[in-house]
Amino acid sequence: MVLSEPYWDHHIPLPKLGPLQSRLVTAFVALVCFINSYDGDFVFDDSEAIINNKDLNPDTPLSNIWKNDFWGSNLSSNSSHKSYRPLTVLTFRINYLLAGGLHPIGFHVLNVALHCVISVLMIDVFAILIGGLVHDGRGAKLSLSPKASFLAALFFASHPVHTESVAGIVGRADLLCALFFQLSFLVYCKAFQGGDKKFSVLWIFGSILLCAVAMLCKEQGITVLGVNAAYDILMVCNLNIYELAHQLLSRRKSADIGGLVRSGLLMRLALLFLGGSFLLYARWRIMGTGPPSFTEVDNPASFAENVILRIVNYNYYYSLNAWLLLCPWWLCFDWSMGCVPLIKSATDWRIVWPLLLWCCLMGLVYQALCSQDSNKRRTLTFGLVLLVIPFLPASNLFFRVGFVIAERVLYLSSAGYCLILAYAVGFCSCHWKKHKVHYNVGKNLADRGNQSAAVKYYREAVRLHPKYVHAMNNLGNILKERNELKEAEVLLSAAVNIQPDFAAAWMNLGIVQNSLKKFDKAEQSYWNAIRFRKKYPDCYYNLGRLYADLNRSIDALNAWRNATMLKPDHSLAWNNMVILLDNTGNLAQAELIGKEALKILPKDHTIMFSLANVLGKQEKYKESEGFFLNALKINPNVASCHGNLAVLYHRWGKLDLAKRHYELSLRLDPSAPGTKENYNMLKRKLELRQRTVG
Length: 694
Known about the structure:
single chain, mainly alpha, 31 helices, about 65% helix, elongated, transmembrane helix, transferase, membrane, TMTC_DUF1736, repeat
């Protein structure tokens, strides 16, 4: 999965907090918004689900919660609503036991606490959906969108539409379902920690198990499997749905399907489908007598005789739900009993709202599928996925539901709305100021390799906003690569003066100063970068290169060792350690380091090459040959590898093999240093041997 930091993230008008601080702030906001419900009484549906529910009483056998519905009625009864939520009822029973009776404060406090936990976990969910699942060398998660995910979580924590779910005790079902929904998604993401081409079936089964737990809290939990599938398709496999559809319509199918099979996507989707089918079958069997029966009072639109009227009114309900997310002004605990009159004719002005809703949705879908900006496509697509998929069980599409509008069913769907809203804030913040447009164009051009054009836009961004440190840093990087070091140093120095904790700019400044032979300043810049970003393996690597240039071998080795401790797969740091130890005559230690590196990076041909050279110098010819040959299996077109293997065979006395690899090396690189001279020496030796034999 190839991901980049969303360009709009750092434009969001929020302070950049660390992971712990952002979580504490989110939990605090969630607490402040809903803590005033802690001393509420049992109200509305609480009377049936809690006060009159005998399953909460400790004298009732615990096994009853597995036989009865959410309201305490036997599931086989015709009057049962078939709401099978035993784990939610179990938490009510625990509240009852802990409080020694029906005291509402404990019930309310737990609801508020659950909302705080869910809001905090939303930071991780949003971070993955916006920026992907990224880890450092030690396996710790990194967020490419810290501000965007924080803002979306704040929106979720404080959204008024959650009032019914949090302040109403029966809303516990939605809260617990959302919690295990999140955990199922996060566990599914864990399946890909080993890289894009590797996945753990065990974690996938764990995700399906947590989906089952979510369903035992509320039926809506099954929808997490749809979100998991969307994440796999769009993020892990990085499929562009629009392009894929175009290819399929063009009948270019074979390569695409083959790629999907090789990536394991079809297998994972099959596991999700089979798991979901099993859970749905089990749920249907538990329902016993079939679906619940509702009256016209509960859901009048579903009883309309005309199919067209049913469709129009269902869509009107959707538009009202959307309005509650957008402007939660009309909150109500019960929308039945004629609160929403049916639309019965085309002249009813309310028909405008469904049309407006679908225009907005189509606009979002178009942007999500067809935008040239991959970050925009990804964020909007996942926003729509989170908005729509959890809402499907309440949509009347698959079965009749027992309500007109229920704000509690928007608890999970609101996460999608919050994600889209956070993107809108970032997008507007980014584009309100002209200089940021130039920055974005410059970044896109640089990503495509058009550095000359990118320089022009970055310069304009800096001209319009002289304190725009990200533009300075990116421009300085391009100038550094073009060897325009003086100007690069000026820009990067200005960036760190404006923002002293800009670690990346400090490191880039150090690289430029090192190239300018300003070694003391370069060393100080590197240490400044490390001071502001404690875990910075690339900076330790560059610091090691500086020390190597200054012949401070021990310091260089220590710096590279730090880089590999922070990022165990830092190939360049490992390789440089082996080469430095080789050059300083510490062959035994170089061998140990090389073999340690290959345990972590078993297919790194550059480390194999360096280790083979070390072993050859120790006259361990057989072992050295093995590493050379393995390196050539991975990358057979490296002239230096053929050349050094030829030298090994030359020393070893295997002259015919030496001749073959000298020739291969010269064919790949006729100007390879020393190879032609060694080859001529070998030819003279072979000619002498022939004359001697003759």
